């Protein structure tokens, strides 16, 4: 039978049963699934323990009786004196209550000396037969938050660097958010049991001075660590279901203050706390981890937007960079031809404007020149439009495919300079004026010329023609 059936048969709580197991008064077997299997003999042992504890016999005395080191009649005889003392205390308490009633004693003027020798009877000792809880619910919560964040960073690297999934496309997608949460849990199941088995703790628990040990004070076996984690996932997080997970977290917060949590009780584990009060340096370390985690997330996202080929580029590598950039940022099919020109015939979303210069009113021509060794020497983007469509997507793609790839150690600066170089700023207030931007970065020369003819804010609002012409040239020195 499982522990729930043992609870029902004996009337003891799970915490009581686990306490008696830890004290060595009974040893249930374990099934193939790793869970305890209680026999009829175990139930009868628990009932005997209950009886003797009601007689105020101590746990060490019961252990001695069970092992044969002490005879039960001898122990019972010794307990008679203890119980006689309890009877006297009860009689004194009874007499005190009766005297107070007869004297009609009041708080003001209560004669303490008259009653100070009266002692109340002791509490039921079985209430003390519990494994003391580790408590510290907030430390345990934040520790798991740290671990989940680290696993989330690992998933970000896999999804963005390996599978080329752009999270910006799913920012408001609930299904994607749930999927990421379950992937994080999957990674937790991969790493946490191994960490608990070999290290005895996890990064989050280590920060807050926590570790997990079995009932013998040893590190957990892999099987026990998995069983414990499954309890955390099921009972503690309600299988990561939205809203229900918060409710389970609240229940665990309340229970954590009174006794060990079910996944620890079930698997013979306990949280070991190095210090009862959180030291300031642990809080500082936790805050530092949060900052580093945010910085790492930003770096992962920024690095994912870089092209796959870096340094000197052949034409094929340049084209691969362009199409990778378009796929990651726009989710489109290959859009750049092998010769580096733009495939304007590709129908995207029925020809609607999606950041590309599509349709008869907007045309962008991209020209790629290579040197004698076959490496890309320069790229030129010429955009003409009658409706203000600026060819921004083409310029951004070319910039990342060529400039960000060629920029050596300053790729972060290259990403930062992008908008300064290729954004036209929509000069509504200065139409018919040619604007020129020039820059130099890591051996590349940038020149961007653009001009709006008759552009105005009213034209933009009313949809009137706004002729536009721009030329972007990126060239190696």
TrEMBL record:
<dbReference type="Pfam" id="PF13411">
    <property type="entry name" value="MerR_1"/>
</dbReference>
<feature type="domain" description="HTH merR-type">
    <location>
        <begin position="1"/>
        <end position="68"/>
    </location>
</feature>
<keyword id="KW-0805">Transcription regulation</keyword>
<keyword id="KW-1133">Transmembrane helix</keyword>
<dbReference type="InterPro" id="IPR047057">
    <property type="entry name" value="MerR_fam"/>
</dbReference>
<dbReference type="Pfam" id="PF06271">
    <property type="entry name" value="RDD"/>
</dbReference>
<feature type="transmembrane region" description="Helical">
    <location>
        <begin position="283"/>
        <end position="300"/>
    </location>
</feature>
<dbReference type="InterPro" id="IPR010432">
    <property type="entry name" value="RDD"/>
</dbReference>
<keyword id="KW-0804">Transcription</keyword>
<dbReference type="InterPro" id="IPR009061">
    <property type="entry name" value="DNA-bd_dom_put_sf"/>
</dbReference>
<keyword id="KW-0238">DNA-binding</keyword>
<keyword id="KW-0472">Membrane</keyword>
<dbReference type="InterPro" id="IPR000551">
    <property type="entry name" value="MerR-type_HTH_dom"/>
</dbReference>
<feature type="transmembrane region" description="Helical">
    <location>
        <begin position="175"/>
        <end position="196"/>
    </location>
</feature>
<protein>
    <recommendedName>
        <fullName>HTH merR-type domain-containing protein</fullName>
    </recommendedName>
</protein>
<keyword id="KW-0812">Transmembrane</keyword>
């Amino acid at each position: 039978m499982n522990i729930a059936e043992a609870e029902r048969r004996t009337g003891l709580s799970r915490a009581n049963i686990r306490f008696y197991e830890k004290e060595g008064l009974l040893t249930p077997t374990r099934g193939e699934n790793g869970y305890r299997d209680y026999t009829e003999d175990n139930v009868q042992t628990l009932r005997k323990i209950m009886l003797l504890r009601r007689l105020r016999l101590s746990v060490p005395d019961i252990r001695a009786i069970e092992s044969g080191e002490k005879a039960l009649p001898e122990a019972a005889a010794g307990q008679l004196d203890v119980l006689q003392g309890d009877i006297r205390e009860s009689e004194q308490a009874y007499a005190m209550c009766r005297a107070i009633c007869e004297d009609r004693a009041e708080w003001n003027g209560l004669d303490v000396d008259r009653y100070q020798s009266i002692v109340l009877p002791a509490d039921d000792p079985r209430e003390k037969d519990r494994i003391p809880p580790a408590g510290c619910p907030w430390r345990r919560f934040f520790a798991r938050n740290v671990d989940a964040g680290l696993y989330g960073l690992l998933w970000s690297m896999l999804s963005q660097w390996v599978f080329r999934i752009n999270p910006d496309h799913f920012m408001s997608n609930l299904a994607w958010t749930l999927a990421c949460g379950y992937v994080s849990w999957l990674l937790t199941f991969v790493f946490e049991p191994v960490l608990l088995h070999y290290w005895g703790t996890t990064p989050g628990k280590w920060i807050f001075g926590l570790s997990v040990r079995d009932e013998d004070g040893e590190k957990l076996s892999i099987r026990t660590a998995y069983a414990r984690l499954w309890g955390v996932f099921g009972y503690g997080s309600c299988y990561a279901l939205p809203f229900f997970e918060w409710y389970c977290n609240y229940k665990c917060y309340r229970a954590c203050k009174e006794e060990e949590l079910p996944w620890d009780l079930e698997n013979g584990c306990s949280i070991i706390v190095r210090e009862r009060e959180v030291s300031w340096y642990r809080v500082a370390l936790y805050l530092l981890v949060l900052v580093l985690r945010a910085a790492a997330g930003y770096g992962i996202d920024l690095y994912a937007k870089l092209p796959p080929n870096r340094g000197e580029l052949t034409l094929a590598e340049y084209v691969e960079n362009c199409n990778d950039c378009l796929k990651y940022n726009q989710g489109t099919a290959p859009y750049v031809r092998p010769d580096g020109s733009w495939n304007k015939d590709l129908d995207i979303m029925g020809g609607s404007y999606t950041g590309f210069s599509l349709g008869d009113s907007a045309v962008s021509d991209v020209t790629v020149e290579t040197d004698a060794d076959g490496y890309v020497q320069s790229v030129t983007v010429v955009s003409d439009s009658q409706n203000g469509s600026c060819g921004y997507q083409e310029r951004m793609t070319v910039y990342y495919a060529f400039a960000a790839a060629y920029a050596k150690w300053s790729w972060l600066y290259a990403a930062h300079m992008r908008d300064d170089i290729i954004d036209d700023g929509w000069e509504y207030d200065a139409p018919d004026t040619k604007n020129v931007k020039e820059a130099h970065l890591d051996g590349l020369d940038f020149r961007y010329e653009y001009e709006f003819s008759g552009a105005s804010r009213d034209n933009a609002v009313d949809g009137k023609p706004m002729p536009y012409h721009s030329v972007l040239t990126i060239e190696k020195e």
